[in-house]
Starch-binding associating with outer membrane (Salegentibacter holothuriorum), 509 residues
Amino acid sequence: MKNIFKLTLLSSALLTLVGCSEDYLEKEPSEFLTQEQVSEAGETNADVLAGTLTGIYSLQFEDGSGGTTNHDDFGQKGYDIFGDMLSGDVALSVSSFGWYRSDITEFQAPLDFTSGRNYMPWRYYYRLVRSANLVIAAVGGNDAIPETDENKYILGQAKAMRAHSYFYLAQYYQNSYDPSQEILPIYLLPEDENGPKVAASVIYKQMEDDLNSAISLLDGFNRSAKNQINKPVAQGILAYVLAAQGDRWQEVKDLTNDVITNTPFTIMTAEDVARADRTDDDVDNPTGGGFNDVNTPGWMWGVDLTSDSGVGLLSWWGQMDYFSYSYAGYGDYKAMDAGLYSQIPDEDVRKNQFMSDPSSSNFLQPWGKFYDPARVPRGPSQVITLDLVYMRIAEMYLLNAEAAANLDMDAEARTSLAAILDLRLDDTSYLDALSGPALKDEIYLQTRIELWGEGKSYLALKRNKETVVRGANHLSFVGEAIPYDDERLTFEIPEEEIIYNPAINTQND
């Protein structure tokens, strides 16, 4: 892994890419490598292209990658927190420092197109798009079929990353999937600039094209680290893209079946997912939970953070983990929504993921799911032994169950769901009585419980067209019903984009 970070130095300028802002509109900004520079270097040193791609992966956890010095600006996992809080499944139960309070949990950023946090995800994902476009152009362009396997794998990863970025842009900046609604500019070349918004159908078609191409290009790719996108990860991203459209369930089912059947990933066991003892003072129990090791067999995609990563307080762990030097340890407590927690049976091992003493202000913090293994309260200031998870095989089982249920294949849906729940509960026989809407509701509930805090609740909320009702441990809007397509849950085209992109000249253009 250390070699990956050394390679990144070859293309460190990529880490200062910008999105659709004033700087982005310059054709050859001095801050980053141009297509010509990457292509020329790649002709004599293949490591430059690999290093450039590594720079993109590093941007996923780089603090400030959304263009600010905010302590909630640290790449993909930062926006996973945004989504989990907007969905209501992650409650800000105590707020001493104010991170997330007004802009996210009180919905000010989604309602204010001038807000910096409304702009952060836009800037971040378009930086990734721009970076991916540089790599794609350097290996021959969008229609290229490289001669060498190495370049095929590089092109496949870049296309998958571009699609992943557009997927999250579409999720965060469109209330609900409407193929005819114009939602985002699309950029497919490094020189593209100042584009008008195009219909969601165009954005989704490009995602599908990129991912289908990536799946083909990545066939046979044996990645050196899990931070890299391989074929199963590209298939997983495509499954999410198709599921978000609401009428592509057979394709979702086929894709997830293939990942489940033909990859070595296994569902995390009861011992993997939760600490066995929930008591505050039990610091010596060596087993159970943690979600801190990228080598976990159930993780399909994630990043191995080391001392070379330079990750500390400004990180996902710095916001979520009580056992790191973190806001979660000193007064900005992120907890499971109390209403969701109440739906977990006592015998469910996942109940052990949360601090269960209702008399404590730490109630329902994820002490048994996300934590530094040393378990020193408010512990290390540098993240070394803690990794980041982006995708798990459990997601494929849950999407497979959801697809089967939407195809009225209830027996198959129950089988996929039971594959997970058999490792969480002693008795799953209650599933046999579920069918139709009741089965779909159970799959949605189990998706929220299984993937809590992993950034997938927001996607499931929109995909299932559900309604949020916040539990009693939120600081605002407790008990209010908020539908999935509420304006408060979706960001606006940012002010900076309107100012600097003449093709988009009004907020609602």
Summary: Confidence is low (pLDDT under 50) at residues 1-31. DSSP finds 20 helices and eight strands in the chain.
